[in-house]
Amino acid sequence: MSNITLDWTAIRPLNGDRGKGFEELCSQLARAEAPADARFVRKGAPDAGVECYAVLADGTEWGWQSKYFNTLGDSQWEQIDQSIETTIEKHPRLVRYFVCVPRDLPDQPGQDRTVGAR
After folding, report:
1. What is the pLDDT of residues 70-112, one digit of tens each?
2. For the stretch 74-98, what's the b/e string if a residue is b when 16 or more beta carbons lie within 10 angstroms of its beta carbon?
3. How many angstroms separate the CA atoms of 61 and 96, rounded?
4. Could you say which of 9, 26, 38, 86 would form a disulfide bridge with 54 (CB–CB 3.0 to 4.6 Å)?
5. In angstroms, how far is the first alpha carbon of the chain from the final one?
6. Torsion angle, alpha carbons of 44, 46, 48, 50, to 10
């Protein structure tokens, strides 16, 4: 297996904004990952905590949120927490939620981040 290194700071900008380019990439990957029979919805701004979501046949939803962060400190985690809280309020049928960040996060059992965790 080859070792691929991605330079997320070199992502193609969309409308002059690399963050928007990352959101678009994540949304395209989400569309490919959504169940084939789901209705896929791409959101604009404001996004109610999701860039896009899929409505499954039973009416439940999967949502994706993109955050183009170079670091993941307290401020960034607070923004992620806020997106999660907004999504819970605005999408009560959500059963899966994916947060996309351009980072490889370490596997640290017991160190998982949850809404409101500090």
Report:
1. 888 999 999 999 999 999 999 999 999 999 999 877 776 665 5
2. eeeeeebbebbebbeeebeebeebb
3. 7
4. 38
5. 37
6. 40
Token pair for residue 112? 């998982």
Spatial CA neighbour of 90 closest among 24, 27, 46: 46
Cβ-contact 52, 30 below 8 angstroms: yes
Amino acid identity of 77?
W
Yes or no: say if 17 and 66 are a contact pair by the CB < 8 Å rule: no
Both tokens assigned to 83: 């997106």
